[in-house]
Amino acid sequence: MTLKSVLVAVGPGDADRAEEIAEAAVEVAKPADATVYLAHVFTDDEYQDVLDQLEFDTELSQVSPDDTAQRHATIRSLRDVLGEHDIDYEIRGAVGAHGETIVDLATETDADRVIVGGRKRSPTGKAVFGSTAQHVMLNSPCPVTFVREQ
């Protein structure tokens, strides 16, 4: 199967593992010359917090999730790595429940692979992934690469 598009989905907890996520994206996308969709998924509360932190004046202009994602530090880090490797990318922002929204984005972008991050777990916790990663792995329309925290 030739990869044409890869969805790299990040959220608020992924800043610490952005380098590992970027490496996984390069490893998958570069040989296939695939387009990478960098997506930052926010819950409603997270989205409002980010708008406040980035000092968007939401009363003067309509701010889209795509605009917000483009200014987010994790997306900028990923974008820089992909640019260094000459990998085509598009930036997407979305608001909703993390797992469901990532699956929806995978469908919308016709992704051939999804890359998501996750936290390190205790030995007992290793039997079950976090709810977001688990939802994505069970419901994604394509294979999922899980990048765990080091």
Structure description:
The chain has helices at residues 18-32, 44-53, 65-71, 73-84, 98-108, 131-139; strands at residues 5-10, 35-42, 89-95, 113-118, 144-148. It has a single domain (5-130), classed as 3-Layer(aba) Sandwich (Rossmann fold), CATH 3.40.50. It has a five-stranded parallel sheet, sandwiched between helices. The chain has six helices and five strands; from the N terminus they run βαβαααβαβαβ. It starts with a strand and ends with a strand. By secondary structure, the chain is α/β, with parallel strands linked by helices. β1, α1 (18-32) and β2 form a beta-alpha-beta unit. It holds the Pfam family Usp. This is Nucleotide-binding protein, UspA family. Belongs to the universal stress protein A family.
* CATH architecture type: 3-Layer(aba) Sandwich
- Poorly predicted spans: none
Number of domains: 1
Give helix % range: 40-55%
What integer value in Å does the Rg equal? 15 Å
Output the CATH homologous superfamily. Answer: HUPs
**Strand order in the largest sheet:** 3-2-1-4-5
CATH topological fold name: Rossmann fold
Largest sheet: 5 strands, parallel
Sketch the topology as an H/E string, one letter per element: EHEHHHEHEHE
Oligomer: single chain
The SS-based structural class is alpha/beta
Mean pLDDT: 88
End-to-end distance, in Å? 30 Å
Tell me the number of helical segments per DSSP (H or I, 4 or more residues long): 6
Shape designation: globular
Strand portion: 15-25%
DSSP summary, beta strand count: 5
Output the CATH class name.
Alpha Beta
InterPro entries: Rossmann-like_a/b/a_fold, Universal_stress_UspA, UspA
Protein name: Nucleotide-binding protein, UspA family
Pfam families: Usp (PF00582)
Domain UspA: 4-148
